[in-house]
Amino acid sequence: MTKPFPDTPTFAGFNAPVRLEGEIFDLEVVEGEIPAALDGTWYRCGADFYFPPLHGDDVFVNGDGVVSAFEFRDGHVDFRTRFVRTEKFVLERAARKALFGAYRNPFSDDPSVAGKNRGTANTNIVWHGGRLLALKESARPVEIDPVTLETIGDWDFDARLTSLTMTAHPKFDPSTGEMLFYGSAAKGETTPDIAYYAADADGRITKEIWIDPPYASMMHDFGVTKDHVIFLVMPTTSSLERMREGGPIYVWDEDLETYLGVMSRHGDGSDLRWFTGPPRFVFHILNCFSEGALVHIDSAVSEIQSFPFFPDKNGRPFDPERAKARITRWTCDLTSNSSGFVERTINPLGCELIRIDDRIALSNYTYGFIPFHDAGARQAGDANAGFNSVGRLNVRTGEMEDSFFAGPNASVQEPQFVPRSAQAQEGDGYLLVIVNRLDQNRCDLVILDANSLSGAPVARIKLPVRTRAIHGNWVARAELP
């Protein structure tokens, strides 16, 4: 008999597992019209539990990978969604129950799956070199069919990927078509090793550099400019011994400093230099760029680890205010004799799941698209529901120039910018946003004019179901097979 899911915040209410595969052809447009310029597919990837967790409760980042697609064509949108057939998913489906235990802790698994691949492919999905890749930072990529969303299988770049892992946040150079990425814990869970890679526009790995950081840590994202690569080593530390004893893979250790490793993008890694600063944490980079010897890293930075389920090493209680991430610029001066970096807050609003116009990535830029909670006159009803707004932030002035408010009892997921045309100026285009209708237990796909977020939506498309994702990316139809 199938076990019920636990009645805990991870598995209740709007967070309850959806467990759905299928498609909805020609979604209902209930407001406005879909622009003809939107011609392509918005791929998204997230976590959903197919079976109740092995040990009674779990964290959402340990869910099974789900990929979904909104296909835009001729003013219509079709939706489809499928679970990724990882080895973990296939084994558990055959057993009709969970077999893998706590997040990234193989010592908590059922003995029948010892040594099996624990990857979940549940964090991001990218298109590069003619392949659609579902990503999770603790494993190698999984290739997905871009039309059917069926799982093709694990991808190791024709055996050129020697790291056991690949980040869920590769960077793309708009001018060369290259994909730049890395693997952390590259030799296995809790090892400090970092492996850096460059892959050309056809998906062939052209560079591999191995790096020994100051300590083993959680590395969810990294930075790339036209000239430099930046590795973020922050005090969310890992321990194999702690996992053996039944503890979590990560704890927050505020006794350690933050390290930023900066190296030339075009060298062999021998010029890698570490800059240090106070304990901080970053999940997501907004953008990075170089100005001569100055390397700027713009991120959502918090004073402590933002996930409350990773405990404090010294037993301090979780502090939600210190855990808020704010858009912050770190600057490393490669001509300075100092080992420190400069920190400046660009905007004080708490935010996450931040995006830019990807055409301007790796270069000096102006705009970021920022989910945040608007606690002002336009009340959201439930202040704990998550981010209820998306704003256009001018990073040069620090001003939130305009914003879209999702409405009462609603929250927003990560936005996606799509340019109005290939020649459009930075930030001139459309913003795609999934709005969670918390009181209706479903979602809307809202299309906004990125130049007028507070104006009426360009279109609102109704989904009769919930769909959740962590990250996603737009692929124009011309790029697809």
Which short descriptors sum up this protein?
481 residues; mainly beta; six-stranded antiparallel beta sheet; 32 strands
Structure, described:
The protein is mainly beta and 481 residues long. It contains 3 helices and 32 strands. The strands form 8 sheets. Strands 2, 27, 28, 29, 30 and 31 form a 6-stranded antiparallel sheet that branches. Strand 4 and strand 5 form a beta hairpin. The radius of gyration is 21 Å and the shape is globular. The model has no long low-confidence stretch (mean pLDDT 96).
Map the helices and strands.
Blueprint lengths: L21 E3 L3 E5 L7 E9 L15 E10 L2 E8 L3 H9 L28 E5 L2 E5 L6 E3 L6 E4 L16 E2 L6 E6 L9 E6 L5 E7 L11 E2 L3 E6 L2 E3 L1 H5 L5 E3 L5 E7 L8 E5 L3 E11 L2 E9 L17 H4 L2 E8 L8 E9 L16 E6 L16 E6 L4 E7 L4 E3 L3 E4 L9 E9 L4 E8 L9 E5 L7 E6 L5
Antiparallel strand pairs: 1-5, 2-31, 3-4, 3-32, 4-5, 6-7, 7-8, 8-9, 10-11, 11-12, 12-13, 14-15, 15-18, 16-17, 18-19, 20-21, 21-22, 22-23, 24-25, 25-26, 27-29, 28-29, 29-30, 30-31
Question: How would you summarize what this structure contains?
Answer:
It is built from three helices and 32 strands. With 481 residues, it is mainly beta. The chain is globular and about 60 Å long.
Ends: how far apart? 43 Å
Question: How much is the radius of gyration in Å?
Answer: 21 Å
Low-confidence stretches: none
Number of extended strands: 32
Helical content, roughly?
under 10%
Structural category is mainly beta
> Looking at the structure, what is the overall shape?
globular
| Fraction of residues in β-strands | 35-45%
The pLDDT mean sits at 96
The profile of the biggest β sheet is: 6 strands, antiparallel
Discrete helix count: 3
